[in-house]
């Protein structure tokens, strides 16, 4: 897979669990939230991981590439600067918008899957790519609603996005599971439709059911059903990397280690 | 878990030893160290403390439960955790229990108010009388001595009773866990002693704990822990028990220890 190296199994680096991440066995790469890093003042833990040769991938949450507002190039430049500071082979953000009309939603809002929205997204992605020093991967989000008048399935939407921008895909299997539970989408169809050869890596995360809604909290254990979606993905393609995201209610080191081991077991099963 | 300790064959937990050795601030640090030992909290390099479980799971004392409850869903700096625990009702209850067990005085601290002024006056009088004795009348030296003795008798008593000092003395001889080391030496020095051989990287955490005058529920005069301390990660994962233990009756018998 040209351009994207074999990353292995990783975990999202967060300040609260920095020592845990350093100590965990078998962490092949980490991902940092780009907006939380300051150029010229990398966290000691991140610097240590870099010294060890652990790849650090910046992950952005605020580019709002699916929005109708102009792309904030300062944010893009910051993302690129973080990538250069950590020597990252790629960066990522989401297929979503987080701002509109001067308001910030605080959430990753799904983009209407219309051709008009795709045109806007493609233009924004191309602008971001032109201002980034490394390739850009884009992630599917979890949605609690579907905009009306959608013209494309999520898989078709992303496939066309890749075709028109040459971006990479960051597939979040927990989001696929959440969407299946909440809005009835089909993860297998999604995997059928996206260009798996453009898969950069995979996110895995936990969540919790609240009434009729499954919340992709990143604060609970990874469900076996999410690992089943990962299993399905791995049956089709060997992902360059798989990363565990945990953002709150951090469990014991042993529990995190067990989750990483479970992920690795799924990946290894298909690698023979 | 532990064996009895003097005086009166009593078990002493890390937080109790911390209180005895360094006051409420040290007790709070010992609680934090015990929770780290037990894998119940984690501390980041920047000194952020987070609870590993919810609902104060794993707490073995009201003070531990209080600290864990304060961390529910909210990472807090080490310094803040220590400061809040220092002034908690649970710390007050720990103090009272130690008073009831005859190892700590109900109040202590720097001399205050008129008592301090009186001691200053007495020392000045002693100095003046010494001058008179040397220059005029040697018999005035008797007065000098009496005044000095009075000034010394007016000094404030320390935090510990005689029994309390015995407990601390034994604890120094029998430190058996990271939490106990922190209880005796504070987060910075306790960590250094507890993980000397671990070779792990060390996070920088602020652990402010000033001295304390319990009667005023604020920082005061007797504890001696540092204002910036650090706690190593591996020091916090090696042992789970934190009770000091030694066996003896009063002043000079041998003391052993155990923990698991």
TrEMBL record, chain A:
Pfam families: MbnB_TglH_ChrH (PF05114)
InterPro entries according to UniProt: MbnB/TglH/ChrH (IPR007801), Xyl_isomerase-like_sf (IPR036237)
NCBIfam families: PRK05409.1
Stated name of the protein: Uncharacterized protein
Organism: Lentzea jiangxiensis
Lineage: Bacteria, Bacillati, Actinomycetota, Actinomycetes, Pseudonocardiales
TrEMBL record, chain B:
Transmembrane domains' residue ranges: 116-133
InterPro entries attached to this UniProt entry: Ser/Gly_Cys_C_dom
Compositionally biased intervals (Low complexity): 222-260
Domain of life: Bacteria
Residues covered by region (Disordered): 219-260
Keywords: Membrane, Transmembrane, Transmembrane helix
NCBIfam families found in the cross-reference section: near_uncomplex
Protein name: TIGR04222 domain-containing protein
Source organism per UniProt: Lentzea jiangxiensis
Classification of source organism: Bacteria, Bacillati, Actinomycetota, Actinomycetes, Pseudonocardiales
């Amino acid at each position: 897979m040209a351009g994207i190296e074999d990353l292995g199994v990783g975990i999202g680096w967060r300040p609260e669990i920095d020592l845990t991440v350093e100590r965990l066995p078998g962490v092949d790469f980490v991902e940092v939230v780009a907006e939380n890093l300051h150029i010229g003042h990398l966290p000691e833990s991140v610097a240590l991981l870099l010294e060890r040769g652990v790849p650090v991938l910046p992950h952005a949450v605020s580019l709002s590439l699916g929005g109708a507002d102009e792309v904030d190039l300062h944010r893009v430049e910051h993302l690129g600067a973080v990538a250069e500071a950590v020597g990252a082979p790629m960066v990522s953000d989401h297929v979503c918008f987080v701002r509109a009309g001067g308001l910030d939603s605080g959430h990753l809002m799904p983009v209407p899957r219309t051709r008009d929205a795709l045109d806007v997204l493609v233009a924004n992605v191309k602008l971001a790519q032109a201002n980034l020093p490394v390739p850009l991967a884009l992630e599917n989000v979890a949605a609690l609603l579907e905009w009306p008048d959608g013209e494309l399935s999520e898989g078709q939407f992303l496939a066309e996005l890749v075709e028109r921008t040459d971006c990479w895909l960051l597939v979040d299997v927990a989001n696929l599971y959440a969407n299946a539970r909440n809005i009835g989408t089909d993860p297998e169809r999604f995997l059928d439709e996206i260009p798996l050869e453009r898969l950069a890596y995979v996110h895995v995360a936990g969540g919790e059911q609240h009434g009729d809604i499954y919340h992709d909290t990143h604060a609970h254990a990874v469900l076996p059903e999410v690992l089943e979606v990962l299993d399905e993905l791995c049956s089709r393609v060997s992902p360059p990397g798989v990363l565990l995201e945990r953002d709150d209610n951090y469990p014991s080191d042993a529990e995190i280690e067990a989750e990483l081991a479970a992920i690795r077991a799924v990946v290894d099963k298909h690698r023979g | 878990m532990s064996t009895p300790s003097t005086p009166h064959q009593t078990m002493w937990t890390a937080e109790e030893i911390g209180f005895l050795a360094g006051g409420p601030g040290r007790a709070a640090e010992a609680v934090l160290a015990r929770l780290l030992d037990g894998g119940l909290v984690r501390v980041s390099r920047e000194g952020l403390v987070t609870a590993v479980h919810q609902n104060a799971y794993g707490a073995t004392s009201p003070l531990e439960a209080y600290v864990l409850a304060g961390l529910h869903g909210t990472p807090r700096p080490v310094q803040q955790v220590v400061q809040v625990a220092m002034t908690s009702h649970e710390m007050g209850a720990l103090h009272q229990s130690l008073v009831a067990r005859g190892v700590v005085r109900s109040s202590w601290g720097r001399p205050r108010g008129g008592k301090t002024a009186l001691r200053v006056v007495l020392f000045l009088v002693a100095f003046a009388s010494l001058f008179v004795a040397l220059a005029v009348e040697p018999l005035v030296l008797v007065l000098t001595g009496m005044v000095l003795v009075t000034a010394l008798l007016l000094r404030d008593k320390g935090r510990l009773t005689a029994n309390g000092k015995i407990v601390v003395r034994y604890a120094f001889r029998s430190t058996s866990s990271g939490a106990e080391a922190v209880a005796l030496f504070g987060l910075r020095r306790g960590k250094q002693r507890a993980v000397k051989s671990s070779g792990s990287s060390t996070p920088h955490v602020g652990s402010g704990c000033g001295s304390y005058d319990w009667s005023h529920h604020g920082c005061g005069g007797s504890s001696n822990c540092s204002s910036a301390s650090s706690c190593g990660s591996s020091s916090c994962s090696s042992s789970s028990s934190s009770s000091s233990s030694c066996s003896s009756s009063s002043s000079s018998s041998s003391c052993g220890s155990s923990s698991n």
